[in-house]
Every structure is written in C-alpha cells, then in structure tokens.
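FW: tagging you since you asked about this chain on Friday. Here's the raw sequence from the shared folder, copied in full. Didn't touch anything.
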Amino acid sequence: MSTGSRAAGGTTAAALRHVLSHLVTPLLMCIGMGLAYLGAFHAPEPHDLRVDVVGSGPSAHVLAQTLQDKGDGALSVRTVPDRDTAVNHLRAQASYGAYLPGKHPELLVASASSDTSATVVEKVFTKVAATQGHPLKVTDTAPTADGDPTGQGIFFLLVAVSIGSYASVAVIGGAGAVLAVRIRAALALGASLVVSVIGAVFAGPMFGLVDHGLGGLWAMAWLYSAGILLIGVGLHTFLKRWTTLGVMVLFVMLNFTSSGGIFRPELQPGFFGSLHAFWNGAGFVEGVRSHVYFDGHGLGGHVLVLALWFVVGLAAMGAAGLAEGKRRKVAAQAQGLGSSRHRAGTENRTGTESRVTVEHRSEAEAEAREELEEELEEAVGV
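HL: got it, structure written out here
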C-alpha cells in the first residue's frame, strides 16, 4: 500500500472516530428526553388530589368518606362547612375542586391553578352527580386570561425563555471563553435581560397570555433566565463541550417535566412531584400563576426558589473564576519553565522544529474552533 493510501485511510478513520465520539451527546439527549418526558407525562394518574365536599351534616361526611375509599389514594377528600370556605381553599390552591351536593349540585374549580387537574376533578364529580340523577353545574372561580384558554400558555412561555437562556450559554461560555469571568457574568446578566423582555412581549402584547401583572412576570422571567445563564456559563469552565448536555438535563429534562405547567405534581410520579417543590421552572410557573391569578398567595416562596437558583449561579461563576485563576497560574509557571529551556537550547534548535511547533499550534486552534462550532450547533439546534 502506498504512503498516500495509508494517509488517506488514517484520515478517514480519524474523521470517523471524531464523528462517532460526538454522536454520544445527541444519543444521550435522546435517552434523557425519552426517560424524562415519558416518565413524567405518559400516564398521568391522580394521587392525593385534594378536593372538598361542602356540608356539615352526616350525608356530606358519608359522601366524602365514600369518595376517599373508592379513590384508593387518588383523592384526598375533606368536608368544609360552607361555600366561602371552599372558595378560599381554591383561591389559596389548598384544593382543586369543591362539590356542593343537593338537588342542583355544583362543582367549584380553579382552572388557572391547573386545567388538567380541574378536568380530572370534573370527571369525578360528574359521575357522582349522575348517580344522584342530577346535572352538574361547574363554576370556575379562577379562570385564565382570554389569551390562554387552556392555562398552559405560561408553560410554553417557560419553554421559550429556557431555550433562549441555555442556548446563550454556549455562545457566552464557548465563544467568550477568552474573556474574563466578570465580563462573561455581565454578558449573562445582559442576555437574561433581553430574553426576559422577549418573554414579557410574548406574554403580554403579542399573545395576551396574561391580562395584568406583566411587570411581575417580567421580573420573574429575568430572575429565572439569569439563574440559568449564570449556572450554565459557570459550568462551562468545567464541562466544556458537555455543557450543552448538562444544562439540558438541568433546565429541560428535569425542569419542564417538574414545572407543573402541564400536569401538577398530584398527577405525576413521585420523583417529578418532589422536584416541583424546589426546581426553578416550577418556581417560575407557580410564581406567575400566584401573581396573576391568586392575589400573590404563596408568591414569596416561589420567588425565593428563583432567588436561590440565582445565588447558585453566582456561586458557579465564582468557582469558575477561581478554577481559571489556578489554571492561568499553572500555565504561566509552565510557560516560564519552557522559556528557560528554550533559551538554554536555542543554538540546537532548527527552523524545521519551529515550523512543526507552529503547525501543531494551528491544528490545536482549528480543533478548538471546530469544537466550539459543534457546541453552538448542539445548543441551538436541539
């Protein structure tokens, strides 16, 4: 075999290994997205879904106990003395349905809390009313805005803001890797401001997802986006081209599925329900719902969740700064040692060796640019 044929074969084999090594990331994304989305959404079943039966007499208690027993853990049924108490529970998201029995039975729901939960509750009590031979009247005590009839618009706003945030991570962390950490942090905060403004435009004037409270929505969108960007850019120092996979696990696979935007935790497996208590996507979705539809009930807790993720982002940037400082110190020491050796052996070095060094440096720079381009394509294209 000629030298040219061997070189061509070696080049092909190297290119093939390069491609196969980079296929690992999209395949892991495929597995992760399948496990996350199908695990969270493929078979929603209620468990401990809180509902109220209005009444204080024996019949109300019997009905509540019957529903509790037949539900086999699906429902958590309580009795409340009157309609006002039931409405207050719905407005505080302490329950997701309230049934008023009688000749004209009525079901109270709050679709702004979760349209899917309201639908589940309605199915249950439609059957209850039918067994008593009466049609069921459904009253929505907290309807959504006209621009968001399903109540899921906030979730899709979460998706848009998240994608804008984690895609920006690859740009700032990769293309901006040569910049100082404080400059990258400033860029992350600036990008999050732009992303949050875009989100507010989507939610308000463009699609009418909310009909008031737009300023508070924008503030939570900025805090949410800033947390993602700071964490992602900070992690880039340590994960490099694996950063895209890392932020997708954190802010897509685990985030969207636990946010409560499609199904609340009472309709999901326990793992995703537990994440709902402290994950940043749930903080944003529930915070916006609380601010816009429930008079700010529980808003402080949701904002605290977003603020804590923001603090984690600041910590990640701080850790990145320390790590990069140590690397620069080691590199400077190595460079100084190399310079001394170079000066000692200058007379024995040839022009050919210098050209080889330049060629190796050029190849390294080309590989770095190629990895950056691949990272940007993965981040934006997925």
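FW: Residues 350-360 have pLDDT under 50 and may be disordered.
HL: agreed, and Residues 299-344 form the longest helix (46 residues).
FW: great, closing this out.
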